[in-house]
Write a structure and sequence with these properties.
Largest sheet: 11 strands, mixed, barrel
Number of strands: 12
Strand content: over 45%
Number of helices: 1
Radius of gyration: 23 Å
Length: 262
C-alpha cells in the first residue's frame, strides 16, 4: 500500500513537467522603432471640481514614416479633494494596416482612473491607477488574443513647480500589467482556457509643460517603452499549436500636446 501511495505522489509530481514539455519555448523577435505623437485636447470645468475633456491624437511609427493610428477621446474627471481624483473616459481607436494599405476595424476603449497626489516642497508626486479595457470589433480566437483586453496601468509621476516660471518639468514611470492574457496550450480544442498574466510594457518618460497663456497649455515629452507581447497561433482545423513568438520592441516616442482649457 505504501508503494502505491509513493508511486501516485511521484506520478502527480511529474504531470506538470510532462505537460510543460509539450509547450515549446517562444521564439524571440526583437525590434526597435522611433515614433511620434501629435494631439489636441479641450477641457471645460462644468462646475467646481468637475470637468469634461475631449481630444484627438495622431500616432506615427516606422521611424515617423507611416501612420500607426488615430484616437478620439471623451472623458470626465472629478476632483474629490485636494489629494484625490476619479475619472473615466472613452477612446475610439482606428489603426492603419500598412501591409494592406487600409484601416482596420475600429476598437473601443474604456478607462477608469484613480489618482492620488501630494505636494512635497515644490514637487507634486502622483500615483495613477488605470483599468484599461479594449473591445475589438473583429473576430478573434480567445486562445490567441484577448477580447476584451484588460490591462492595469500603474503610473508614478513627479512634477517640479519652478517659482515664477511657465515651465513645469516632470518625470514618470509606468507599468502595464495584463489581467486576462490567454495561456499557451498545446491544443486549444482539447485543453481548458486559462490565463497567464505578465507585465506587457515598461515606460519611462521625461517632459515639460508650458503655460502659453491662462487657457493654453503645451506639453513636450519623450517616452521610452519596452513592450513585450506573445503571438500565439493555432491550427484552425485541429487546434494544435502552430507558432509561438515573444515579440520584444523598444520604442522611442517623441510627442507634443496642446490643450485649451476653459
Amino acid at each position: 500500500m505504501k508503494k502505491i501511495i509513493i508511486s501516485a505522489i511521484l506520478l502527480l509530481g511529474l504531470m506538470p513537467t510532462l505537460s510543460a514539455q509539450d509547450i515549446p519555448t517562444p521564439t524571440d523577435v526583437n525590434t526597435n522603432d522611433f515614433r511620434g505623437r501629435i494631439e489636441g485636447n479641450f477641457e471645460w470645468e462644468v462646475i467646481d471640481d468637475l470637468s469634461i475633456e475631449a481630444g484627438l491624437q495622431l500616432r506615427l511609427k516606422d521611424d515617423f514614416s507611416s501612420v500607426d493610428r488615430t484616437q478620439t477621446s471623451f472623458g470626465i474627471n472629478y476632483e474629490t479633494c485636494k489629494y484625490f481624483d476619479i475619472g473615466a473616459d472613452y477612446v475610439l481607436i482606428n489603426r492603419y494596416d500598412k501591409a494592406v494599405s487600409q484601416w482596420e476595424k475600429p476598437r473601443h476603449r474604456v478607462n477608469l482612473n484613480l489618482e492620488g497626489k501630494v505636494d512635497v516642497g515644490r514637487v507634486e508626486l502622483s500615483l495613477r491607477e488605470r483599468l484599461q479595457t479594449t473591445f475589438r470589433t473583429d473576430s478573434v480566437n480567445r486562445y490567441e488574443k484577448m477580447n476584451p483586453e484588460m490591462i492595469l496601468r500603474s503610473r508614478v509621476m513627479a512634477t517640479y513647480n519652478i517659482r515664477h516660471s511657465r515651465w513645469s518639468p516632470y518625470l514618470l514611470f509606468e507599468l502595464h500589467n495584463t489581467l486576462n492574457a490567454p495561456a499557451v496550450v498545446s491544443n486549444y480544442k482539447s485543453e481548458p482556457y486559462t490565463t497567464d498574466n505578465f507585465i506587457t510594457r515598461y515606460r519611462a518618460g521625461i517632459g515639460v509643460k508650458y503655460r502659453v497663456r491662462h487657457n493654453h497649455r503645451l506639453d513636450f515629452y519623450y517616452y521610452f517603452d519596452y513592450d513585450r507581447t506573445y503571438n500565439i497561433d493555432y491550427k484552425g482545423n485541429k487546434g494544435d499549436l502552430k507558432g509561438y513568438l515573444r515579440e520584444n520592441e523598444m520604442r522611442h516616442i517623441l510627442g507634443i500636446s496642446y490643450k485649451f482649457k476653459l
